[in-house]
Amino acid sequence: MVSSTGGRSGGHDDAALDEIDLAGELMIAATASSGDRLPTERIDEVLLDRSDPGRGDRDAEG
Fold first, then answer.
1. How far separated are the first and last CA of the chain, in Å rounded?
2. Which is more confidently placed, 53 or 36?
3. How many whole angstroms separate alpha carbon 21 and alpha carbon 9?
4. Which tens digit of pLDDT belongs to each residue from 4-46?
5. What DSSP line would sit under 1-52, residue for residue?
6. Cβ(26)–Cβ(46) under 8 Å?
7. What is the pLDDT of residue 36?
8. Helix, strand, coil percentages in the chain from 3-state DSSP, rounded to 5
9. What is the radius of gyration, based on Cα positions, of the chain?
10. How far apart are CA 25 and CA 20, in angstroms?
């Protein structure tokens, strides 16, 4: 059987996993939102939180 990745490096897999993780975080934020739509400001918070290394760990602590 031939692998569908065909010898590509793991970079594509890492990017896909990052996108899945980001989508999950946005879905969690949308679920917690009281409105019909997730406000742009909240989307920005979620996206910016991911770009600040270690910040997510501090938020999880309390």
1. 48
2. 36
3. 20
4. 555 556 678 999 999 999 999 999 999 998 888 889 999 999 8
5. ---TTTT--THHHHHHHHHHHHHHHHHHHHHH-SSSS--HHHHHHHHHHHHS
6. yes
7. 87
8. 65, 0, 35
9. 16
10. 9
For tokens 């594509």, the residue is 12
Tokens standing for 62? 């309390």
Q: Scan for tokens 């602590």, then name that residue.
A: 61
Length of the chain: 62
Q: Is the pTM of this model over 0.85?
A: no
- Asked if residues 42 and 29 have their Cβ atoms less than 8 Å apart, the reply is yes
DSSP label at 54? Answer: T
Cα-to-chain-centroid distance, residue 17:
8
Structure tokens at 26: 């946005």
